[in-house]
Amino acid sequence: MPKYYCDYCDTFLTHDSPSVRKTHCNGRKHKENVKFYYQKWMEDQAQSLIDATIQPMVGGKELLITQNGTTYHIRPLKSH
Ligand SMILES: [Zn+2]
């Protein structure tokens, strides 16, 4: 029987069956991991966007922007 790998929890379920998967996906830990996973992903997206758009505008300065409780770090451009 193939094992089911849960990306969010970074773990293998020992048995892969619809009921095992359902139980796992309804678990509190899994739901927290899913939430965390997407939160992290959103933060990464926001940080990339900041790096690509805002950062060139602020030049060589370092800035911290806090939005919805998350602090984004505006890094100075690396000089080539
Ligand atoms: Zn999971």
UniProtKB/TrEMBL annotation:
One family from Pfam that matches here is zf-U1
A single MF term (Gene Ontology): pre-mRNA 5'-splice site binding
GO BP term (any one) = mRNA 5'-splice site recognition
Q: Which UniProt keywords apply?
A: Metal-binding, Nucleus, Ribonucleoprotein, RNA-binding, Zinc, Zinc-finger
**Which domain of life does this protein belong to?**
Eukaryota
Q: Which locations, inside or outside the cell, does it occupy? A: Nucleus
Chief localisation class = nucleus
Tell me the ranges covered by the Matrin-type domain, including all copies: 4-36
Assembly notes: Component of the U1 snRNP. The U1 snRNP is composed of the U1 snRNA and the 7 core Sm proteins SNRPB, SNRPD1, SNRPD2, SNRPD3, SNRPE, SNRPF and SNRPG that assemble in a heptameric protein ring on the Sm site of the small nuclear RNA to form the core snRNP, and at least 3 U1 snRNP-specific proteins SNRNP70/U1-70K, SNRPA/U1-A and SNRPC/U1-C. SNRPC/U1-C interacts with U1 snRNA and the 5' splice-site region of the pre-mRNA. Interacts (via N-terminus) with TIA1 (via C-terminus); thereby promoting spliceosomal U1 snRNP recruitment to 5' splice sites.
By what name is this protein known? Matrin-type domain-containing protein
